[in-house]
Amino acid sequence: MISTTFTEQFGVDHPILCGGMTGLGTADLIAPVANAGALGFLTALTQPTPEALSKEIARTRDLTDKPFGVNLTILPTIDPVPYDEYRAAIIEAGITVVETAGSSPEPHLPDFHGAGVKVIHKATSVRHALSAERKGVDAISIDGFECAGHPGEDDVPGLILIPAAVRQLSIPVIASGGIASGQGLAAALALGAVAVNMGTRFMATTEAPIHDNVKQQIVANDERSTVLVFRQFHNTARVVRNTISERIVEISQRDGATFDDIAELASGMRGRKNVLAEGAMEDGMWWAGQTQGLIHDIGTVQQVIDQVIADAEEIIGRLPTLVR
Predict the structure, then answer these.
(1) What's a Gene Ontology MF term here (predicted)?
(2) 105, 111 in Cβ contact below 8 A?
(3) Whether residue 231 sits in one domain with residue 91
(4) Are residues 302 and 272 part of one domain?
(5) How high does pLDDT run on average in the chain?
(6) Residues 234 and 183 occupy one common structural domain
(7) Which value, to the nearest 10 degrees, does the dihedral of the CA atoms of residues 133, 177, 53, 270 take?
(8) Are residues 74 and 196 in the same domain?
(9) Domain that residue 105 falls in
(10) Taking Cα atoms as reference points, which of 76, 75, 42, 78 lies closest to residue 61?
């Protein structure tokens, strides 16, 4: 087995995370991730209320006795989110590790640390990672340009970003974005990371709570099957290339375009309902990374994790033979 400071500090068998994914981070996926020896994160805001989150944590515990965490994404919203209540639900449930993303986690750190909760913060640049370190987070998940979701505005890929972060940070660094295989895990460890975060790869598993059409589309797609949206609004996001996302790009490039012009097309609720739930692949914007080009089958979570670890171990074991 591959042992790192991550596996030691977080009490898991493998240096693999399944980070928070809106609409997917439920017990159906996260319990199998935990049972397979990795660290998965329920997505707090996938649940409509803090009370519903408490129930989802309990449901996950009914399915696994191994560690898992909760993702708390902190973003400006039209309707205020009761973050304090979600945070309280996480603490009261006895969760020991939280993944934060979006805005600064600083307001939440005193309560989390006071309850003995470790905090992993997702960052898309070294400067933001350093800021989070100064505020007291326990680890950084550094998100390269290849990732699904919001890669920031610097366009720095993981091959550069990971070692740049490792060089300047004194806390553990988790590699995120562009990783879906044992080759990626071995490379990330060679670059100085202590673990990897995979999202798109876990979408293409039998347990992922999404329509089979989505899983099949990920397998069919290649590394060119994404597009960047919202770039004109300085909120760049990587999503799957389809009719809706290409329409969003076209409208956004018009003179004087505002986000209101694409809001209906870009609706997260539309993507989750039409695509993720109903399998209408061209009728909503949905999220996946460039790693689609590395995903060639749909397996169980256990099979995916076992294969990633086996391939990484084989590569790591072979590398010393190259030194003369």
Answers:
(1) nitronate monooxygenase activity
(2) no
(3) no
(4) no
(5) 96
(6) no
(7) 130
(8) yes
(9) 5-209+298-321
(10) 42
pLDDT value at residue 239: 97
Grouping H, G, I as helix, E, B as strand and the rest as coil, residue 37 is coil
Euclidean distance between CA atoms 187 and 268, whole angstroms = 33
Instruction: Give the contacts of 170 (CB within 8 A, at least 6 positions apart).
Output: 133
Confidence class for position 311, pLDDT limits 50, 70, 90: very high
The answer to whether the beta carbons of residues 4 and 194 sit under 8 Å apart is: yes
Q: Is the pLDDT of residue 76 over 80?
A: no
Q: Are residues 193 and 246 in the same domain?
A: no
**Which candidate, 114, 82, 320, 295, places its Cα nearest to that of 202?**
295
pTM of the model: 0.95
Co-location of 155 and 270 in the same domain: no
Structure token pair of residue 164 = 């740049």
Is residue 50 within 8 A of residue 86, CB to CB? The reply is yes
Overall number of domains in the chain: 2
For strands 16-18 and 195-197, give the pairing: parallel
Calculate Rg over the CA atoms of the chain.
Answer: 19
Strand pairing class (173-176; 226-229): unpaired
CA atoms within 13 A on the CB side of 224: 0
The per-residue DSSP string of 260-320 comes to GGTTTTT-HHHIIIIIIIT--TTSS-----GGGGG----B-HHHHHHHHHHHHHHHHHHGG
Beta strands in the chain (DSSP E): 16-18, 39-43, 69-74, 97-102, 118-123, 139-143, 173-176, 195-197, 226-229, 237-240
How far apart CA 169 and CA 97 sit, in angstroms, is 20
Cross-strand partners of 48? none
What is the average per-residue pLDDT within 83-97? 98
Interatomic CA distance for residues 312 and 324, integer angstroms: 22
Q: Is residue 215 part of a domain?
A: no
Q: How far apart are CA 258 and CA 261, in angstroms?
A: 6
